[in-house]
Amino acid sequence: MDAVSTRLRLRVSPGANRGGVVGRYGQAWKVRVAAPPEGGRANDAVVRLLAETLAVPRDAVRIVSGQGARDKIVELTGIDETQTERRLSSAVRKEQVS
Questions:
Q1: Are 6 and 80 in contact (CB under 8 A)?
Q2: How far is 79 from 28, CA to CA, in rounded Å?
Q3: What span, in angstroms and rounded, lies between the C-alpha atoms of 63 and 73?
Q4: CA–CA separation, 33 vs 89, rounded Å?
Q5: 3-state secondary structure at position 40
Q6: Within 10 A of 90 (CB to CB), how many other CB atoms are there?
Q7: pLDDT digits over 16-75, tens only?
Q8: Which of 59, 48, 60, 52 has the alpha carbon at shortest distance from 94?
Q9: Which of 28, 33, 58, 64 is buried most, with the most CB atoms less than 10 Å from its CB?
Q10: Where are the alpha helices (H) located in 3-80, listed in sequence order?
Q11: Other CB atoms within 10 A of residue 16 CB
């Protein structure tokens, strides 16, 4: 059986005061990470943030496009598009409450 995978468009804001999922940004999701965009640290932070938010292992999150840009495409393994959207939306709601 083939593993489920989903591609996700992101707009990343590195160097933020705190990380989190902000909400929609056109067709993408906007996320903030505290790590600076130097030496791949922001990309690592994006992978950690998504893995934690989506409750998937880190190795299930892979940046496939935009490693050096704010606009990225991430491939997620083991989670479908519906679950991804639901979990990201839930993270936004939690962020707005805190």
A1: yes
A2: 17
A3: 6
A4: 17
A5: coil
A6: 12
A7: 999 999 999 999 999 999 999 999 999 999 999 999 999 999 999 999 999 999 999 999
A8: 52
A9: 33
A10: 41-54
A11: 16
Cβ neighbour number for residue 45 with a 10 Å cutoff: 21
Strand 5-13 vs strand 71-77: parallel, antiparallel, or unpaired?
Answer: antiparallel
Q: How far apart are CA 79 and CA 33, in angstroms?
A: 22
Q: Is 6 helix (H, G, I), strand (E, B) or coil?
A: strand
In total, the chain counts a number of residues equal to 98
E-only strand ranges, 33-87:
61-65, 71-77
Mean pLDDT throughout 6-13? Answer: 97
Cα torsion angle, 68, 37, 7, 59, sign? positive
Q: Which domains does the chain have, with CATH numbers?
A: 5-97 (3.30.1200.10)
CA distance 36 to 77: 26
pTM recorded for the entire structure: 0.92
